[in-house]
Task: structure prediction
Amino acid sequence: MRLARDVVRVRVPATSANLGPGFDSLGLALGVWDEVSVRAVAGPTTVRVVGEGDGALPDGEEHLVVRAVRLGLDRAGAPQAGLELVCHNAIPHGRGMGSSAAAVVAGLVAARALLAEPEALDDDALLDLATQLEGHPDNAAPALLGGATAAWEDGAGPHAARIPVSGDLRPTVLVPQAQLLTHTARAVLPTQVPHADAAFNAARSALLVLALGGRSDLLMAATEDRLHQGYRADAMRGTAEAVRALRQAGWPAVVSGAGPSVLVLERLDDATARTLEQHGWRVLDPGVATSGAHLVG
Ligand SMILES: Nc1ncnc2c1ncn2[C@@H]1O[C@H](COP(=O)(O)OP(=O)(O)OP(=O)(O)O)[C@@H](O)[C@H]1O
Ligand SMILES: N[C@@H](CCO)C(=O)O
Result:
């Protein structure tokens, strides 16, 4: 396998995982985009970051996008090269908006586009490699496919399917100042949960598929969760309190991914949004990204 192109440019969307009950399975692509250009060069690897992560990320082989490109090239049996990366990042890091999955998926899609035979890395292979780096497929699936997705794993690896989403769905994301890394938020989860709680979430996940497709009357019931949010509340007190207050006021609010952002599966009214901004939240109205990662230029 040889490289056929010197330079490729990829756009990849933010994602919100779990959506309440669908822990490690459900995800939604959001209209906030990172853009990464990758050039194969003879010299050493360099990385320039503009926007989120500027000055805080590795600038060489340890950078997550570089690691993902290398994983993709290795899987395809292609030669490695020096890489010159320019990353224009808009997705906030460590906030539950899928920044790490976006970096991984951008690198894998770039690797595929560099290949003389891109079919060597189909979407299943990309999801498999992304899940190796991420540990779970629920952000990578919507970052790759766009829209809402259900992801699951079996002996053959991870899989994902699109969930139909009503054109009326207008998510709001509330982003706090503080970061919380996913591995910290996963460390507080129990290894076992009560059977009744698993049954509770199974019913809500099924309802959520209906609600996303247009049954907005089901959104409140469909976004209840007993598998992760309660266990994580002490690690993100402000988030837990915002979710509680919004739900009490009738908004279908959940923790976005591993937090600490809040996802509301409706557009907040201006007065509520202003109040939240006064309390330090950045209020985003990103829309649903109906397409996933793609090449530009
Ligand atoms: N665009 C990027 N380029 C390089 N590294 C990144 C990028 N985005 C995220 N990372 C790495 O991933 C870390 C954040 O990943 P983490 O999984 O903790 O949060 P998240 O992906 O933003 O949230 P979540 O998985 O809950 O949606 C950053 O601290 C950084 O090390
Ligand atoms: N399902 C994951 C999403 C964050 O990457 C979690 O909640 O830990």
Q: What stands out?
A: The domain at 7-163+289-295 is CATH 3.30.230.10 (Ribosomal Protein S5; domain 2). The chain has a mean pLDDT of 97. Residues 17-18, 23-24, 136, 138-139, 182, 185-186, 228, 257-258 surround L-homoserine (ligand 2) (CB under 6 Å). The chain has two domains: 7-163+289-295, 172-284.
